[in-house]
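Weekly modeling sync, notes
Attendees: S.R. (lead), two postdocs, one rotation student

Agenda item 3: backlog of single-chain predictions. S.R. asked that every request posted to the team notebook include the full sequence so nobody has to chase files. The rotation student volunteered to paste the first one in as an example of the format we agreed on. Action items at the bottom.

Example entry:
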Amino acid sequence: MANIKSQKKRILTSEKDRQSNQHYRSLMRTRIKQALQAFEANDAEAIKTTVAEAVSTIDRACTKGVIHRNSAARKKSELQHRAAHS
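Predicted structure, as returned to the notebook:
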């Protein structure tokens, strides 16, 4: 454990940030998996809704700084490409 007061505070805030990032990353992965399952089922209505939810969640994760903007763009592009060709 740190001895310096400011470092003790940084440890606490870093843990809060880590848990928040973990939440958004987990939610993003779940939404992407739901979209992939909709692709497998070949259900047009489910594809439309799940891809929109996944893209929204990816944008939110990018805005919060959980993932890099290029990574977000790549993930969104892959989902939208698959949606257009299914």
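Discussion: group reviewed the output briefly. The two ends are 54 Å apart (CA to CA).
Action items: rotation student to repeat for the remaining queue; S.R. to check formatting next week.
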